[in-house]
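Deliverable D4.2, example record:
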Amino acid sequence: MLDISKADWKLFRERLPEWQEAYMERLTREYIELLNGEEPASRKFWALEERVREDKRRPGIQLQLEKSEVGWDLIRLLGDGVITESDLAGFSEDLKDTVLHLVKIHHV
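Output generated by the structure prediction step:
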């Protein structure tokens, strides 16, 4: 995709834990809402189990850190609502332009 600069790679590794923590916080609030619902306990339990199983595969929870995948990872993070376009501030213009272009093309 792109040749990722050292500066972009460093910035991505610095910001990713913060983004993931914020995303997990949001998920935790959603889980609490689910558990506070009116459904029977068994239904809430199994719904939560299904939700956690799906969520833990998302890039907002875990990513294999590979420099060559930074662009695609940013696209996935944007698509899942883990980050917004404003979170791309500080990255190189080439990387931002490419990521945003691919997001638009793929309607992520």
